[in-house]
Amino acid sequence: xxxxxxxxxxxxxxxxxxxxxxxxxxxxxxxxxxxxxxxxxxxxxxxxxxxxxxxxxxxxxxxxxxxxxxxxxxxxxxxxxxxxxxxxxxxxxxxxxxxxxxxxxxxxxxxxxxxxxxx
Length: 119
Known about the structure:
Blueprint: H1 10-20, H2 25-37, H3 45-57, H4 61-73, H5 81-94, H6 99-118
Helix pairs in contact: 1-2, 2-3, 3-4, 4-5, 5-6
């Protein structure tokens, strides 16, 4: 008698789709969140930010916002205000009516410019 096959976890399904190159930007974002939170896999913020960036580059505004937050805070990645600024701007482009990316882009990009001028 065969043992019933264990259902595929959300992580396994998303990882398989991303690795095969046929995942939507939303699915890449969902996989990034699993890595970030350590759900179904050991937490890996470096992998999370890479996936957030990949999803953002393919049009996912939430992923752009999360990547920006990670760079702004130095959360699992080196603190880089220029990168944070870049991804807040990307989120603002994708969600022009969502005020938070607009506000953060202005705030962080201004700090980034000030930091560059001090050098």
